[in-house]
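FAQ
Q: What does a multi-component entry look like?
A: The components come first, one per line:
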Amino acid sequence: MDRWQRVMEQQGNAPPDDIPIVLAREGHHGPVIHAANRVARLNGINPGSRVVDMRAICPDLQVEYADLAGDKAALDRLVLWARRWCPWTVRDEDNGLILDTTGSDHLLGGEAAMLIEMETQLSLLGLEAQLAVAPTWGAAWALARFGPVRSICAPDQVTDKLGALPVTALRLNEETLLLLGRLGLKTIGALMDVPRLSLTRRFVKAKLEANPLLRLDQALGKLAEPVASVDARPRFRVQSRLAEPILDPTPYLPGLCEALCEILDKAGMGCRRLFLTAYRTDGDISHVTVATSATTRDPTHLHSLFRDKIERINPGFGLDLITLEAGAVEELQHRQNRLEGGSDDDLHLTQLVDRLCAKFGSRAVTRPVLRQSHIPERAEKSAAALAAPPETETAARQERPIRLFDHPEEISVLYAVPEGPPAQFVWRRRPFRVVRYAGPERIAPEWWHDRPGTRLRDYFKIEDQSGQRLWIYREGLHGDGRGGAPRWFVHGCFA
Amino acid sequence: MGSLRVQKRLAGQSHTPDPVAHTLSEVFPETVSDAAAVGFILARLPRTDAPVLWVQDRLSRKEAARPYLVGIGTARPVIMVHLSRAADVLWAMEDGLRCKALGAVIGEVWGDPPALDFTATKRLAMRSEAAGLPCWLIRRAASANLSAARERWRISSVPSALHPHDAQAPGRPRWSLTLFRSRRAKPGQWVATYDRSADCFDLTASVRDGSLAAGHGAAGQRAAG
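Then the predicted structure of the entire assembly, as tokens:
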């Protein structure tokens, strides 16, 4: 929810605080509520219930769809970000972080001070957090969600503190919670009072998430639950510290590119993105980013991509540090596909595309590919320049022009025959007299794409008195009830 | 009148020993929206599946439309580059001519921009000859000013051939080709009839010319550029 709010603020259309908003996800019986903002929670809307029910409670509820994959990725980044407090961090399911702070709390002035520091830093990121310190993963999970604010639990207090919490705090699934509720076991304390033997007998075959005894042991520390920390991906970065401020970073670039490519080569990696950061003496920072269309670690090629971009750096009073970092790092093995030791010249084409993209932007360099559609402008779409062509290559059954206008140009028809092309028309202030024609070829709108009311088109290939061959169409029919008289357009040119 | 293979004709009159050496050619369409020039270029591209780099400036795309893949066919992939300035078009073409993996480089420049001077065309021509890549420059709404292009064509559509089944419909397209400057061949004027299914065109001399009519090339053979 916080992440969504921040994204909306960045886009400049953040809603006011007093509107109830929920994020929804797909459930078994229609959308269910994934998260709700404060106003919505105060109105009695709780996550997990169905959106239609909650609409009945709160008619002016606004519903947006949650980005679950994005949340997960953001949480993964947060895991690495949280390494500032302790070296051993891991993501916990979809909505939590576990930090193994053993031995690192005293660096931040004790556990209580550490929690306040964490909450401050997270709120600076715009995130709301519920924190707890406990000797085990399970106890921390329970106390953070169901315990008091910023609760701290010493190893000998675990039984007391957990005893008062509801059984929901044991990370059990829905069915088991329902079963425990029917058995009258409402709190963890009540569960602890049940003899171990009967619990073991009742849940002997249950999995971990359905077994209250195992979960209880985990929370109390009788069953080990280690924190398996993930490694941060290695960063490939080189820098050159300058003894004196310089105004032109160009002479340092080849050296930086070579050093970076050497590191990448040792790791067997290649990069698809390069970030050049120049730090000015007055503390200002400027960035230049280049991207390649294929993974590479060729220093001369990477250097050539910066050719016209370096000038955009404003040196001010001088630069004293330049760093070059590789992004989008992927594995790149040496490839040899010729027997005598050379490799293919395909790399050359990728380099050309990179150079064009670096100079003119990746939008300017495209590759048209075919698509299944009868509408002429939809039968072709532009893909990335080195994208693989789609498998479904379909040849046009009818003859098609070799040039197509992005926007069909309207023509004024001087004299129209009811069931045929116009005998004469004016296009671009020039009169055309139709000498010969082929058609009509009727292309109906794609009702699953188009707005209702889109008119059909009748295409004609016409040839005028000078021999120019055009592709014109009439939009709609007389009296089809979709607008006035049909209009005529030029859509393409034949060879 | 006689039908001739272009290659044979070019070879017969040329002073250079290699008739199929690729070089820079300029094409001037008679009218802006005439696609005959594009059709002629596509028919003369070498028949490989190497990608074609096609660079267009903004006005060419707006006034004379963009190449339409469905009509061109997917035999060779096309890499389209849409730019706004003529200087950028020339830069991209020159860069493309350094890449041997391409099959051809086609550029479209609108009007007579100052960037397209003799030096620029000379650079393109020399790069094209060094790389052995055909390079075509389509110049719309332009005057045939000083240029180093080895071949310069003026191309327009003429009324098409008779349709074999439908007298009302246009048949095989016909183009009027004028080679008004060439380093390798004698300039001349022809009418070409293009056969879409076989991707080849027949040449007919529109002006009776003794030296041209003397040949006896088989009709329907493809012109190798």
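Q: Is there any commentary attached?
A: Sometimes. For this entry: Residues 342-346 of chain A have pLDDT under 50 and may be disordered.
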